[in-house]
Design goal:
Elements: H1 9-20, H2 24-29, H3 43-46, H4 56-89, H5 97-127, H6 138-146, H7 150-172, H8 180-208, H9 213-248, H10 255-278, H11 281-288, H12 293-303
């Protein structure tokens, strides 16, 4: 006899976590290597098609450089996410044991994701030319992030995990021409992050319900500080990746083209890691649903300089 569906969202997360759970070697890597004849990060995220002077080979190469950083930055942010989830789980330790299990499972999965991204980096380092630079150290970033209020860290975490889902559904899943291993990594990642986003929202709203108006005001300031810090990481990585790409590309580019490559990388990284998340409908509904008008205006004003970073629409093809 089939059991009745549960109304407990934590129980549903636990059930889904058990159902979709995967193993790095058995289910994802499966003795494969990355195929460098294929694109990694699709153009909807990499924006490489906006540089019309790149050769097809260099567009593919730039997608691979970005794909390497895409994995690296996910591993970077999951360091502080895992630590925060373990901290928050203690609030359930002597209470709702199902909620505790859901959050402990999330922390375990985040540790697995970090291992997967470390494995990816080593595999790509073995097969790509030397010179790639990861500009931020995970523990230093985590220490800085975790110094901020729990409300702001949970808001940032929800943002990250919602854009993870949006990226996979809108840009990665539809493409059959991506490197199979690279695509499988982010398919597996998406399956578990789908449960994490549910927990992020639950814990963010639970934390928000405990705040006074003054505490929420301060937390909004923390969230803005975190966005500025993320943007600083993206600026540094975009600069490093532009230099690396230019050193290994098939062609030599002139000063104007090199400047355009650097600007494109920063735009793409801001789109990937900030703008695609803060403009996602579910995130806006949750975040702005708890802010008053003044707080919402502070967030909007802080984001305004970054909101240019969206894909440029392809020109319409005239009818014959």
């Amino acid at each position: 006899m089939q059991s009745a569906p549960t109304a407990n969202p934590y129980a549903k997360v636990v059930s889904n976590s058990k159902r979709v759970r995967w193993d790095i070697d058995h289910d994802v890597i499966r003795h494969r290597r990355f195929d460098f004849d294929k694109t990694f990060l699709p153009s909807g995220l990499s924006l490489v098609n906006e540089l019309d002077f790149l050769t097809p080979d260099d567009r593919r190469l730039l997608s691979q450089v970005q794909g390497r950083s895409y994995a690296y930055i996910f591993g970077l942010v999951e360091r502080f996410i895992g630590a925060k989830v373990l901290e928050v789980s203690r609030q359930h330790a002597l209470g709702d044991q199902v909620a505790l299990e859901a959050l402990v499972r999330m922390a375990d999965e985040e540790l697995k994701h970090q291992e997967l991204f470390r494995r990816m980096e080593q595999m790509m380092a073995d097969d790509m030319p030397a010179g790639y630079v990861a500009t931020a150290e995970p523990n230093a970033v985590a220490t800085a992030v975790l110094s901020k209020s729990t409300w702001s860290v949970l808001a940032l975490t929800l943002d990250i995990e919602l854009f993870t889902l949006a990226h996979y559904r809108a840009s990665i899943e539809p493409h059959d021409d991506l490197c199979p291993l690279w695509k499988d990594v982010f398919h597996a990642h998406w399956k578990e992050e789908s449960q994490h986003a549910v927990l992020d929202e639950l814990e963010f709203l639970r934390e928000d319900a405990c705040l006074t108006a003054a505490e929420r005001d301060a937390a909004v300031g923390d969230l803005i500080d975190l966005v500025v810090a993320v943007d600083g990481i993206l600026q540094a990585q975009a600069h490093a990746d532009a230099s690396y790409f230019e050193s290994i590309a098939d062609q030599r580019y002139d000063d104007a083209q090199r400047s355009a490559i650097g600007a494109l990388l920063l735009k793409a990284y801001r789109w990937q890691y900030i703008v695609s998340g803060v403009t996602e409908g579910r995130f806006q509904k949750v975040l702005f649903g708890v802010l008053d008008d003044a707080q919402a205006a502070r967030v909007t004003d802080a984001l305004m300089p970054l909101l240019y970073a969206v894909p440029t629409p392809s020109p319409a093809v005239p009818r014959q």
